[in-house]
Design brief:
about 240 residues; alpha/beta; Carbamate kinase; two-stranded antiparallel ribbon; globular
């Protein structure tokens, strides 16, 4: 079997990928296929880290209100990512893939703190590392967390898993004439204000030359094809 092009990958998962479309919380029928796809790519020999969102429970930026300030709502969102990470860890291990959860916020009963050296040691033992709690700070998205952690662990690639085939010229859900962009630069993402990754995350990836592939996680072989360097989804790079 040919070697994968990317030896260490960070997978950015939305919280919504862990529940049914339009659903809420965690659904085993949704999370199990995701875990199986992740377990498959681990067998290819790549180190795999995952940053998981919490949007299936709440989003801090939209949940904030007069009674619940933004910073508090963001911390609530961080706790939601911990719940998702723990559920994903258990599902991965049920598939036979060892996994650990490392969190930027302290939840010692269910996960360990994020320490870079310990994360790299988990890779050496063939474990998936699920990174929860965002950056540990309010006002930062899980996109920014994904870019930050990718830089810290020396990832070769970020894969942003979505429910569509990549980045389009417009929303493909509402505009049937929207065209898929197969390649786009970091600068173009910022210039066109494309909402695929937030500006801070794109800037970090640009500065550290970490390519991003945006793809549809619900198509079985997509992540595998991305690791082998095949053209899939949208590649964001210099």
């Amino acid at each position: 079997m040919a070697e994968v092009k990317y030896k260490r990958v960070l997978l950015k998962l939305s919280g919504e990928s862990l529940c049914k479309v339009g659903g809420f919380g965690i659904d085993t029928e949704a999370i199990e296929p995701v875990a199986e796809r992740i377990a498959k790519i681990c067998k290819l020999g790549a180190d795999v880290a995952i940053v998981v969102g919490g949007g299936n429970f709440l989003r801090g930026a939209t949940f904030a209100s007069k009674s619940i300030p933004r910073h508090t709502a963001d911390y609530m969102g961080m706790m939601a990512t911990v719940m998702n990470a723990v559920a994903l860890r258990e599902t991965l291990e049920a598939c036979g893939q060892p996994a650990r959860v490392m969190s930027a916020i302290d939840v010692p009963a269910v996960c360990e703190p994020f320490i870079r050296r310990n994360c790299l040691e988990h890779f050496e033992h063939g474990r998936v590392v699920i990174l929860a709690g965002g950056t540990g700070n309010p006002f930062f998205s899980t996109d920014t967390c994904a870019a930050l952690r990718a830089c810290e662990i020396g990832a070769d690639l970020i894969i942003k898993a979505t429910k569509v085939d990549g980045v389009y010229t417009d929303d493909p859900m509402t505009n049937p004439d929207a065209k898929l962009l197969t390649n786009i630069s970091y600068k173009e993402v910022l210039h066109q204000s494309l909402k695929v990754f937030d500006a801070a995350a794109i800037s970090l990836c640009s500065e550290n030359d970490i390519p991003i592939i945006v793809l549809n996680i619900f198509k079985d072989a997509n992540i595998t094809r991305a690791l082998y360097g095949e053209k899939i989804g949208t590649l964001i790079s210099k």
